[in-house]
Design brief:
Two copies of one chain form a homodimer. The first copy, chain A, is α/β, with parallel strands linked by helices. Chain A has 24 helices and 21 strands. Chain A has a seven-stranded mixed β-sheet with strand order 7-17-18-19-15-20-21, with helices on both faces. In chain A, strand 1 and strand 2 form a beta hairpin. At the A-B interface, helix 19, helix 20, helix 22 and helix 23 of A face helix 19, helix 20, helix 22 and helix 23 of B.
């Protein structure tokens, strides 16, 4: 019954079948390009038709690929001098640090001339400038290679890939791979689990389109105040009208994944079920449009306008497809009765035939008296009568024996065969007709592909905004005030994930950086006291605000950030054979070399991987450089309590610490960040509690006093204070002022 | 066919079936006792009959239970004031840190009076003093509780538990649970995997008994020089006669697990297969005895004597049991033809009966002409003739219809029933007879239980010695010289596990502690350079030597050690909710309070979990205390390079460091431990290589110079040098002498 003999090559990056795909994640196929002038990266999700391109620095390619986490990556084959070592190195890096499948294809896939030709042909345009792509752009070779590979593997129309979208990094808050991991945005660090990540915690979307879009928002938050405000205003409006929000969300429930259905329609792989779902979903759009139509927010108004109801398509599909249709064509029954007169007639014959057969069997049993006479069907000789062997001598003369089994004989009769022809051909012709009608429907639906894709984006965006509003209402999040100044003020902020799992036990904390306050904050405090949670939380709140979300806090004023940098405890990252300290320093150098005054920098224990004074000297010099030369908002959690002296020497540095109390011979962490350096005698105090003899703790205290007092002298001395910016000592030196209260 | 209606309660700690047990591990059931005078611990493995008792301090109980890693732990139920909070706390601790099943039993199980009575009754003695157990010993209550619980669950003889062995801790090198974990003796630290552990790496045993005994040797190495030497001499002799070693090992191959077979025989659970294996194994003993009989080593001579061949038992079993016997009794066939005349006769009848039945079926088909007549059997009415329903009118008159099915009728005849009685009863009687013969054999074999247990111990010990010899030959290990002095000298030592996986790449290292040299060694060097491997290796080599093994080195002189203490990098041990630093200090306090001058102490990065000066002060005071007050052999790997100054101040401290070279802009670790403190500018050097701007590294160096020179002044100053023992400065102060060569 199968008409076409299309052979499809299935690869990890070119899947379109729902059962093989994660509904909430894009399934990207990507291609990097290392050209003579610059580098570029293109990626496509054939299951949704999204096609992206981006020009970027060569050394940002790995980061970007890891962020996209594609299933498959296309690189040119090595061929003598061409496409050589650079690609080999890239492929090796990728294969070492991720589970991406690397696919090699001939170099000409990446040839700029043939790539441009195939792109122009695919999009049916004379130039790519309409997509913002110049004729000599570096994105052309990889984009062309992707198209070539898709047509090689798919051997079918790729009509749903209708445009190429150029990503401009400057519009987005940049989060590098290290930060993506250490802030646990998509997966947790230790178990690489989705559960427990930021995305998992805040995702309240109800559709696949919405989930994938929200995932994109989390990975690429915005950088322009007006665009962020546009989202916040939309979220705000849905929060204010919570009945409307609930109504919208109940429409979104059970909405089909339009993008993926369009993709299957365009590649001739849509199933009858897809059409039923598509029609059902289209029927929900008018209600959604109505709900949004009276909005005040510009974004919501636009979304209302984007609700393209396509009633004629819905009408057509509903009239044509049986609502309870089978998922396979094998037995027909897909096209609705009444849609096509010829089909209805053929089905009549086929159906009558069956009752005729039942009657015929009954008649033969009566005629022969053989009770166990049965009517059967097989592919070799069609319908037959089966009689147990022991009765074989009792069959009438007009039975023709066709087959002898162990215990039975099979016969045909003239009458049976004549009817069979009529019935079978009617059934077969009805199936063929159904298929042809279905194909026509597919073609008709394919004509709507571009409108459906726009609608899918619109529904996805509604889902995202509604998800954020739902989240904000459910958890009591507040709308952050966004501005362009270098400021970061959060009152009673909470870690969005940890606060959720701890509930009321979680201790909220304030943060003030930039603006009136210093840019650099040194945070000291014992292990396990919450330093790391606090600095991660600060970065996550900025990220959430810039993606358009409300945030867990009492109030917040956030000046947009261009990049988030993190250098966070490399617990087990013996990655790529480098020593942990080498990794630590490489990441730090990346921050120092790339941070601007608008970046947000989060440092956790920098300098720990080497010896004491070495690490302290580096941490000191790095902090001086950030405070005096870069001036970006920075949170630095450290065990080097000596760094707190910097607040005395530099205007742009201030100290905070985590409050600790002794209670019934135990140390209790209050998880509250308070101004000032921390009490230094905590370690010796714990040692005493742990049972170290008093002689040793007393001796430790003696040594500590000596070291501290020397360091204090040192810190105000000529050399350490050389880069001093504070004009007058604001207060007494820290150590003297904060004599231990514990010991 | 089952005669006995014994009901057995299966619990994790009382398994005897091979398929449920790990061949290489004991399966202990244990019971702690917290008495008014002291504490005790008893444990038993019912699958081997081993029964141990130990008196110990209350706070050592958890450690000891964790070392034994039993499957189940028996504690008394809480009952008002009795058996209350202490046990509840213990049970809670155990359940938190391990997967032991806690079983609660009434308090009277632990009652000293009834416990003693049941022990005396079980062993059939008037006093327990023969086992070294006094009448008021604290081991009696838990030992009695175990016996009570076993008889409650097993409901069968426990005759194979023939003695209680009192463990005297003083005879063994004590390894606490922390060291067991951090030295990866039984499992790796990160993945808790057996693969990659010391035991896995050195175990070359061929029998379950040997594997379990070697595991015991690894966990409890010896402490007396003569007993260690006894094992070394035996290993040496087998190494010297490698043909003999191979012969012994080929005898050991396919040796059955005697201990577990004895246990099943005594508890009436032995299978026919067990007897076949037992006989086969006994047949190997004479050859083993012969191979060992001309040994020089005292231990080997003793083992030769222990080879009890028990030929009469082997003869009996071979004569009685069919070699290819089925594993179940269901269909008989276990007892060999010729062993019992009555059995042979009954089997004859049963066998003839079957051919009679076949003949009868054939005859009936001929008689009736019904081709599909079949002879069948069911439980309700025995043998029957089945005929398809359509032929029912053709059956002879003497057929009696017994059952009507959908398509068939079932009949019996007089003749059929008469023969049936004869055949069936013969078959049934033969099965009954087989079972009774088998039971007699079991009883006969049970009479050998105690001799078999002694033999099992002997075979296990042969296996261990042969395993160690095989290991020594295969890997080129050498025999360490053992002595009673406080000395530890190893030339070209290797880490037994890491060296094995790295092969030639592994760099061997010397060690000299105690004796002529200082007791305390401070080891400095960058991350990943091999410090941790080196200090762990030193502990493992001592442990291996004291368990009786040869070691990977060129030569070694080892003064026996009473305890091994480790305090090793708590990477992820957020155990029991304590902060990592609290764990670190608790473990350190344990060392300081319990180490003697004969202990071996391994410290890795103590003081890291707190702020810089805090940690340095503690590490300084701890090192002073160990060097001046305890004087035990100590390896201390640290990032506090400042501690190297201690070698100038204290006689009993020396410095080593890990050699590092710069090569083509990369840092290469030579993994070689060399005398002297390490070069301090390594961190800043790496920072430069990692791409930190020159302005920052230059500033770091300036700060570092300042800190260092201040510290040098400080270290020779009044306070830090207060506990100085070195009479005259042996050389210039370290920092000045070792000015960086890298930067």
């Amino acid at each position: 019954v199968v008409k076409r003999d299309v052979v499809r090559v299935i690869t990890p990056g070119t899947l379109t079948d729902d059962i093989l795909l994660d509904e909430k994640e894009d399934n990207f196929l990507c291609a990097p390009y290392l050209g003579p002038k610059g580098a570029a990266l293109c990626w496509v999700d054939i299951s949704t038709g999204h096609f992206y391109a981006q020009q970027l620095d060569e050394d940002a390619i790995v980061d970007e690929i890891l962020r996209l986490s594609p299933s498959e990556c296309l690189v040119p084959e090595k061929r003598e001098q061409l496409f050589g070592d650079d690609y080999a190195k890239l492929a090796k890096q990728l294969s070492e640090i991720s589970s991406i499948v690397i696919t090699h294809r001939p170099g000409w896939y990446f040839d700029p001339y043939s790539a441009e030709k195939s792109l122009l042909k695919h999009f049916g345009t004379n130039t790519l400038e309409g997509f913002g792509v110049d004729g000599d752009s570096d994105v052309i070779p990889p984009a062309g290679a992707l198209l070539e590979y898709l047509s090689e593997t798919q051997k079918t129309s790729l009509a749903h890939i209708r445009s190429i979208k150029l990503i401009n990094k400057r519009s987005f808050l940049h989060i590098d791979q290290t930060s993506l991991r250490s802030l646990e945005i998509l997966r947790t660090m230790r178990s690489e689990d989705k559960k427990g990540s930021l995305f998992d915690s805040i995702d309240q979307t109800l559709t696949g389109m919405g989930a994938r879009m929200l995932r994109g928002w989390v990975c690429m938050p915005l950088r322009q105040v007006d665009r962020i405000t546009e989202r916040h205003t939309a979220v705000q409006e849905l929060c204010d009208f919570s009945q409307k929000l609930d109504d919208i969300r109940s429409q979104l429930k059970n909405t089909a994944d339009l993008e993926r259905i369009v993709s299957r329609i365009s590649t001739f792989r849509a199933s009858p079920k897809d059409f039923v779902l598509l029609a059902d979903t289209l029927r929900k759009i008018p209600a959604m449009k109505l709900l949004l139509s009276e909005s005040v927010s510009g974004l919501l108004k636009n979304l209302a306008q984007g609700c393209d109801t396509m009633e004629e398509l819905a009408d057509l599909l509903e009239a044509a497809i049986e609502p309870e249709c089978p998922s396979h064509f094998r037995d027909g029954g897909v096209i609705r009765t009444g849609f096509n007169a010829e089909l209805d007639e053929l089905r009549g014959i086929s159906k009558d035939g069956r009752s005729w057969l039942a009657a015929y069997q009954k008649k033969q049993i009566e005629l022969t008296g053989i009770q166990n006479l049965k009517l059967g069907f097989n592919k070799v000789f069609g319908y037959y009568l089966e009689i147990s062997r022991s009765m074989a001598d009792q069959v009438p003369g007009d039975y023709v024996r066709k087959q002898t089994l162990k215990n039975a004989e099979r016969y045909i009769t003239q009458e049976l065969k004549e009817y069979e022809d009529k019935v079978l051909s009617a059934h077969e012709r009805s199936l063929e007709l159904e298929l042809s009608i279905f194909d026509q429907l597919r073609s008709r639906a394919a004509g709507y592909a571009s409108r459906l894709q726009v609608l899918a984006q619109c529904v996805g965006c509604i889902d995202c905004i509604a998800s954020l509003a739902h989240l904000a209402l459910r958890r009591g999040y507040i709308r952050p005030e966004m501005c362009g100044e270098k400021v970061l003020e959060i009152k009673e902020g909470k870690h969005p994930v940890v606060a959720q799992s701890l509930g009321n036990e979680f201790v909220s904390n304030d943060l003030e950086l930039g603006g009136e306050s210093a840019d650099v904050m040194i945070i000291t405090g014992p292990n396990m006291s919450g330093k790391s949670t606090y600095i991660r939380q600060s970065a996550l709140l900025v990220l959430m605000a810039q993606m358009g979300s409300f945030i867990p806090a009492e109030s917040a004023r956030i000046g947009v950030v261009d990049r988030i940098f993190t250098r966070v405890g490399a617990s087990d990252e013996l990655a790529r054979g480098q020593s942990t300290f080498m990794v630590e320093m490489t990441e730090t150098a990346n921050i120092i070399n790339n941070a601007t005054d608008r970046s947000l920098v989060v440092l956790d224990e920098v300098g720990r991987g080497t010896s004491t004074y070495d690490g302290l000297s580096l941490a000191w010099a790095i902090t001086e450089h950030i405070a005096n030369n870069i001036g970006c908002r920075t949170l630095f959690a450290t065990h080097y309590h000596e760094l707190t002296e910097l607040a005395q020497l530099l205007d742009n540095v201030k100290n905070c610490n985590v409050a600790v109390r002794e209670w019934m011979d135990e140390v209790v962490f209050l998880h509250k960040i308070v101004p000032g350096g921390t009490d230094k005698s905590y370690g010796i105090h714990v040692a005493r509690l742990a049972g170290l003899p008093a002689s040793i703790t007393a001796r430790s205290r003696e040594i500590l006093d000596d070291l501290e007092s020397t360091f204090v002298k040192e810190a105000s001395g000529e050399k350490l204070a050389r880069n001093k910016t504070a004009q007058q000592p604001q207060q007494q030196l820290f150590v003297e002022q904060n004599r231990s209260v514990l010991e």
